[in-house]
Amino acid sequence: MPARVCLLLILQPLESRGELLQRQVSMDWTMKLATAALFLGLTMVVTRDEDEGDMCLYEALSDTDAVLCKGLEVFYPELGNIGCMFVPDCNNYRQKITHWAEPIVKFPRALEGATYILVMVDPDAPSRSSPKAQFWRHWLVTDIKGTDIKKGKLQGQELSPYQPPSPPAQTGFHRYQFFVYLQEGKNISLHSKENKTRASWKMDKFLNRFHLSEPEASTQFMTQNYQDSPNYQTPGTGSSEPRDKPK
Questions:
Q1: What is the enclosing helix (H) or strand (E) of 221?
Q2: Inter-residue contact 213 to 176 (CB < 8 Å)
Q3: Tell me: the pLDDT tens digits for 196-211?
Q4: pTM of the complete model
Q5: Cβ(118)–Cβ(149) under 8 Å?
Q6: Among the listed residues 135, 185, 143, 144, the one whose alpha carbon sits nearest the alpha carbon of residue 163
């Protein structure tokens, strides 16, 4: 092979190496831009679809109410973990939650060898401005193993079966509070008088009776009667599903 041809074969890759590198960089940027554009497009589609349907806005509780949110998770169907949140004013969630079964309650930091007590109450019965029936006892479970509540299983003794949140109309937002206490081998029970009604439960006396001090974990969420939604329409006048976030 002539020397000139060999030289050209050697020099050509050297001369085009810079162009090749430049082309590769250009292709990399093109792929990145295309990926970003695709992601943005998908995001815009999801947002638009939600706008055309019922876009749910999860609103957090105020700093004052959020003080109670300490290490406990409460999961309802469709909603997920609603701890420290308002139940969204969309998809009829505020009505659905009045019919759903008990939520999944998780205490991730529970001690595996311990037993716990779960308490769920409404301190705003019949309303937050006039809580004459405070506390309304919605749920009371004892003898919960730490290994269970850590995974969201409540295989204990139900002293008060679960009662869903059902705030009366025109009473504003109600807080639904969950507390987990360390049982420490105590035999927990309710007096016969306490079993007659769930309203006006003297929760402080109950805790003092069994020497239950500070809760190991707690949380709360808030909701109001679905008919109090500003967008609620009575049956026959249009859709009854509210779409705006809670006020």
A1: strand 217-223
A2: no
A3: 999 999 999 999 999 9
A4: 0.74
A5: yes
A6: 135
Residue 148: CB atoms within 10 A of its CB come to 18
> Structure tokens of 14?
């050297």
Residue of 177, 175, 176, 171 lying closest to 130 (CA atoms) = 171
Rounded to whole angstroms, the Cα distance separating 145 from 132 reads 34
135 prior amide bond cis, ω within 30: yes
pLDDT for the residue numbered 103: 98
Distance CA 58, CA 134 (A): 27
Residues 6+ apart with CB under 8 A from 4: none
Tokens at 141, concatenated: 């479970």
The more confident residue out of 139 and 43 is: 139
Return the number of other C-beta atoms located less than 10 Å from residue 4's C-beta. 8
Hey, what are 46's tokens? Answer: 């999801």
- Look-up of token digits 């009854």: 240
